[in-house]
Amino acid sequence: MISISIVTVSLNSVPVLRDALASVAGQSCRVEHVLIDGGSTDGTLEVARRHGRHLAKIVSEPDRGMYDAMNKGIAMASGEAIGILNADDRYAGADVIAQVAAVFEDPGVEACYGDLVYFRDGGADGERIVRYWRAGRYHPRRFYWGWMPPHPTFFVRRSVYERFGGYRLELGTAADYELMLRFLLRYRVKVAYIPEVLVEMRVGGRSNASLAARLAAHRNDHLAWKVNGLRPYPWTLLCKPLRKLPQWVRRVKR
Q: Is residue 253 part of a domain?
């Protein structure tokens, strides 16, 4: 079985970090877990030390945002393949990393991804799934119709990062979109789809926080194509948010 590293980035994440740590610690196979913190002041590091005894590395220092932190973690990771798990996300089950590792047993596979659900904390009523992102199998033309894989489910061989680089900070909240576009469409990295829910993600996110943030993200989506020398269809980036609509009505089997 190949070695897998997970990079988690955090900043003042006390309310949610414990879930992320537990979901990695509870995996059925061994995994290297690296925590990159942006200099939290709310007790995040205390939570990490108390509930993250499995953590291989903990770094806490100022950074230039979460994608800078992800790049730091990727540089520190020693696994043959690397996944990103944000502090407010968690793996959907104990066998997620084992499934990923099994896919990478094929030496021709350079990346993989799966499905994702969004959930909302419901207080006394418990958690509730509000969206189901069924990614589906990859074809290069799908990017031109607004498709992208769920970034928290995206695992990549370390050699791919070494060849093609990490996250571009100037792309803002579109940095993950640009990276996947670069790897899959520009460089045609061979990717596999795992048709299972791999990650559970709390609702929210900076790119959807306001109309201004959404417009900025849209501009950066355009730039993601431009910096890679790729030309989208006139409707490509209009399709991107429209593809999310079925996620609100699709049911997931649990």
A: no
